[in-house]
Design a protein that fits this description.
With 418 residues, the chain is α/β, with parallel strands linked by helices. The chain contains 15 helices and 13 strands. The strands form two sheets. It has a seven-stranded mixed beta sheet with strand order 1-2-3-4-5-6-7, with helices on both faces. α2 (66-76) links the parallel β4 and β5. The longest helix is centred in the middle third of the chain and has 27 residues, at 248-274. The N and C termini lie far apart (52 Å).
């Protein structure tokens, strides 16, 4: 057993202490799981299938580990990369072909044939349009020292609309489309290997279906896709992030429980919406399935299930949250200034924030600290209180997304204070 399979077993037993959906936390290594089936663990992963016509890549990984992926796969096989399938157009899945493309060009070989869903090119177009915004998101979410996001993309050579079957070198690949993390998501079934490559529909964390800084996601259709995977009774699950899952019983359990988690959040949210509840009531009224979230492959280490509730509201209810004051709101600073005047100044709001923090009411502390800083952004004492509040809030959260946003807010105030 190599380090990839060793990690897979330890992960199933609950030994993963941190998220593996962060560039700095991913295990980078290659392992052959069966004859003709390799798995490159990285940020993100690559499934590699050997065929008579060459290698087929299921995802291509990212810029972070492109060189390591090239070296490791080349140590396993010298065959040209005949075909690559993007499970979706997120940048950590579509930037791993560079060294293989250069190798093919130098050898005078045909370039890799890239397949993706038909919505993928429009995604790349949007990324170019919103390059600066996505760069800022990356900096905030992952704690990068500066904004980072690519401006050029390897567009697919062919696209598919729904489910489609391709044959490469005598091996059958069944491509399936289910909206989930994205609207262009594919997952792949390789019947000869009794394997499925899930892409980001399974990532060894609570489904990334509520990301507060990204476009719409589709929890109910995501759950349906997981159910379709389970029905295939695969013996090997290759995820978009994290280690593989081996054994039909484990694969079935993981897919079933991931789908059940999403279905529970969808059912509760829609029931409350249909009863006329406000967004605030829905967010605080949905009961999280803690037994499922305790599973080692569903822990809320990246996304937060409460964000999924918000995303469902956006999907089915639009942006109005039911609070009339939010329909045509005053500028935030104007409201903060009025509140500060009413309670004796921004320093009083900051002090109230620190008291709430001491009481363990981190959410209220954030509101009060934010009002204080909006009212008096140049007050160093206020900014120091805001920094302490958000630093402490980040320390108590489990999801990388919440931690990233709160830590970024703390750094902002530390800079202002200085």
């Amino acid at each position: 057993m190599g380090e990839v399979l060793d990690l897979a077993e330890r992960a199933w037993q609950g030994a993963l202490s941190e998220t593996h959906v962060h560039p700095g936390n991913a295990l980078v290594g290659f392992e052959e799981l069966a004859t003709g089936l390799g798995f490159m663990s990285a940020f993100s992963n690559i499934g590699v299938v050997s065929t008579d016509d060459g290698l087929v890549f299921l995802d291509t990984s990212s810029l972070f580990h492109a060189q390591q992926a090239f070296d490791a796969i080349r140590a396993w096989s010298p065959d040209r990369v005949h075909t690559a399938v993007y499970t979706h157009g997120h940048v950590d899945h579509v930037f791993g072909l560079h060294f293989f493309a250069r190798e093919a060009e130098e050898a005078g070989l045909a370039p890799t044939h890239v397949i993706a869903h038909e919505n993928c090119p429009a995604r790349f177009d949007r990324y170019v349009l919103t390059n600066g915004y996505n760069a800022v998101i990356n900096q905030r979410q992952f704690g990068f020292p500066r904004p980072v996001f690519p401006k050029e993309y390897r567009y697919p050579d062919a696209t598919v609309r729904g489910d489609e079957v391709i044959d490469v070198g005598g091996v059958r690949f069944e491509l399936h489309h289910d909206r989930g993390e994205t609207d262009d998501h594919l997952w792949i079934h390789v019947p000869s290997q009794r394997a499925i490559y899930t892409g980001d529909l399974f990532i060894w964390a609570s489904p990334n279906c509520g990301n507060p800084q990204k476009v719409q996601r589709y929890p109910l259709e995501w759950a349906a896709g997981l159910r379709r995977m389970r029905a295939l009774e695969a013996e090997t699950l290759l995820p978009g992030h994290g280690p593989p899952i081996l054994g039909a019983a484990r694969v079935s359990q993981a897919l079933d429980e991931a789908a059940t988690l999403l279905e529970s959040l969808c059912e509760q949210t829609l029931r409350l919406m249909n009863e006329g509840a406000r967004l605030d009531d829905v967010i605080h009224g949905v009961e999280l399935p803690e037994d499922l979230l305790a599973r080692p492959y569903l822990r809320p280490t990246y996304d937060d299930p409460r964000f999924i509730v918000r995303n469902l509201w956006r999907l089915y209810g639009g942006w109005y949250d039911g609070n009339p004051a939010h329909l045509l709101p005053a500028p935030e600073r104007a409201v903060a200034t009025r509140l500060a005047e009413a309670c004796g100044g921004a320093a009083q709001l900051a002090a109230a924030a620190e008291r709430a923090l001491a009481d363990g009411d981190h959410a209220s502390a954030c509101h009060l600290a934010e009002f204080a800083a909006q009212a008096e952004p140049e007050d160093g004492t206020v900014q120091a209180a805001r920094a302490r509040v958000y630093s402490e809030r980040a320390r108590h959260e489990t999801s990388l997304m919440a931690k990233g946003i709160y830590r970024a807010a703390a750094r902002e105030s530390e800079a202002e204070e200085g």
